[in-house]
Amino acid sequence: MRARPFSFDISLKGDWGSQFDRRLERRLSGLTGIYLDSESQTRLALQGDPLVYEVFEMLRPTQAGELLNGLSVIHPGKVGREYFMTKGHYHEVRETAEMYYCVQGTGYLLMENEQGDWAVEEFRSGRVVYVTPGWAHRSINTGTAEDLITYFAYPGHSGHDYATIETHGFLKRVVEEDGRPVVIDDPLRSSAGRRASTGKDGRA
Ligand code: S6P
Ligand code: ZN
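Above: inputs. Below: predicted complex with zinc ion.
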């Protein structure tokens, strides 16, 4: 891990993941329960198990003062009426923010907090989304052919709480209606705002 200041390009040509230290991949079979149309999810997972998204991380110490950063690449695709999207999570340390810079593509960052507020901010090339502390976040690629690529940075001690979203889902979903993305209430949402017990970081 580098001890001196450094810089790097986010190049969209060639092997643009190579300047990062770690690559995580999420295939449809590993995203059980996040889509409304579970039959389509199972069928697609059995028919080739598409790569839904990848995360390229710059490894830094997981401590306050550091910034964890990298690229999220969400591929285009749909499961039923829903677009390919990330699992979504709260930060384990709720008092930590995050910034996203959209490098390429179109989509949304769906967010909510434990007080029951929700927000949707648009991703398009050159646009920044600031996630205030205490807001869960999920990236959604609404493009038909293009990857949604975002650069993210967040405090080193944030940790990840996936369990709360796995248990309760988000309040809202973004689905395709008449060829356009629309925000709907999640019919599966169990009880809003309750927090499940979690480990420190369920990311890997
Ligand atoms: C981490 C940050 C991103 C996401 C990535 C994948 O705090 O928000 O690196 O991890 O976009 O999403 P998820 O919900 O699978 O971690
Ligand atoms: Zn995050």
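Residues 89, 91, 98, 137, 154 surround zinc ion (ligand 2) (CB under 6 Å).
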